[in-house]
Amino acid sequence: MHRPFWIALSLICAAYLLFWGFMLGATATYTSPTEIWSVLISREIRYATGLSLITCTLAALASLIVAVPIGYLMSRARFPGRSLVDAALDIPIVLPPMVVGLCLLIFFQTPIGQGIEKLIPFTYTVAGVALAQFVIAAAFAIRTMRGVFDHLSARPEDVAMTLGCTRAQAVWHVTLPAARRGMFAAASVAWARSLGEFGPVLVFAGATRMKTEVLPTSVWLAWSVGELEQGVAVSLLMIALSMAVLIAIRLTGERA
To answer: Got the DSSP string for the chain?
Structure first.
């Protein structure tokens, strides 16, 4: 009775996956493996790859440090204005990326921002790359951690507190160990999001070769000067890294 319904949904899913498959296949076969390898071992791309790995990892770790307490707060606490706070946390997700970069740039022209710059320069620096990635990635990590805490029962915490633990002790000894796979997933999502971040990085940190160039800006620089093969090679590297993160998240979830 319901078979036509499920067949229709399956066809829509298959069409969508085929569309993505054709796009990725066309990209993978655009140039030769020899050309791809020569691009990837070039000095500029090796630098961009190394910088991307470093800044993405820093952004992911910083995102996790922020996401765990905020995710727990939004999952467990009930307070006035909670819905407004929840909406505000999604602002980095819905804002155009270029606007996020512009907001960062303007903030660091204010007295507060200039004071921070005296301690740690961010504008058009490697630290600025990591910050631009963090601003966006943290919002996704917070959403992930909130979902993790929503699915964890609060009963073990309550039991721990009846045995003499404070709330902080109960969270540290009971909840966080139970949420460790979710924390890995949140950090992985933040890392993958940081890897593909382009707009805020370009506006706030720039795209200077051998300084603030990361993989997304490498693609942009290559296409802007007509070096299509280089852009395709870097794009394929980013696809491979993203797929590796996705597989790691899936395998971790299956073992949970």
So the answer is: --HHHHHHHHHHHHHHHHHHHHHHHHHHTSS-HHHHHHHHTSHHHHHHHHHHHHHHHHHHHHHHHHHHHHHHHHHH---TTHHHHHHHHTHHHHS-HHHHHHHHHHHTTSHHHHHHHHHS--TTSHHHHHHHHHHHHHHHHHHHHHHHHHHS-SHHHHHHHHTT--HHHHIIIIIHHHTHHHHHHHHHHHHHHHHT--HHHHHHH---TTTT--HHHHHHHHHHTT-HHHHHHHHHHHHHHHHHHHHHHHHHHHH-
